[in-house]
Amino acid sequence: MVNLYREDIKKNEVLDWQGVHLFRFVGSSCSQKARIVLNLKGVDWESHPLNFLKAENYTPWYLGINPRGLMPTLVQDGDVHIESNGIISYLDEASTTPRLIPDNQNLQVQAHLQDEDRLHFDLRTLAFGFVLARFLAGKPPEQASASANRFKAAFTDL
Ligand SMILES: N[C@@H](CCC(=O)N[C@@H](CS)C(=O)NCC(=O)O)C(=O)O
Q1: Per-residue DSSP letter, 4
Q2: 56, 71, 82, 122: which to mutate for ligand 1, most atoms within 8 A of CB?
Q3: pLDDT digits (tens, 9 = 90+) for 100-145
Q4: Which of 57, 84, 117, 142 could form a disulfide with 30 if both were Cys (CB 3.0 to 4.6 A apart)?
């Protein structure tokens, strides 16, 4: 679990937020994991959608909350948590019903989550370096903009 130090949070207003808040992008698998667990656990949470196609995760405002500029970020009663696998493990421990990671399988599950995190990092490199870069940039300007719009439409907030 990565729980940021309060003095590292430059956007101090989130330190006063009450309840559960999730910064997320609709097409982000890491955000989806957190959303699935929040909903399975029946947590009442507030959604803060960010659009990474508009680089909203790299604004000074968001970087002041999550210096890595990645999603998801969970804010609970002013505490800021990053890293999706830490977030889902934390949420599972915070309320015991339903228990999604049984105690007697926790070590194995954490090992699988670590593998998944490493795999995700590799996939991100490939996706950003080859798929998205080609998709959005390697075309004539008019086509690039049409493609970008189609890509954006595919990720229209659900
Ligand atoms: N290890 C991090 C990875 C987070 C991550 O890479 N999130 C992606 C979405 S799945 C993201 O924010 N990408 C935006 C970017 O790389 O600019 C976690 O599990 O939370």
Answers
A1: -
A2: 71
A3: 999 999 999 999 999 999 999 888 888 777 777 666 666 566 655 5
A4: 84
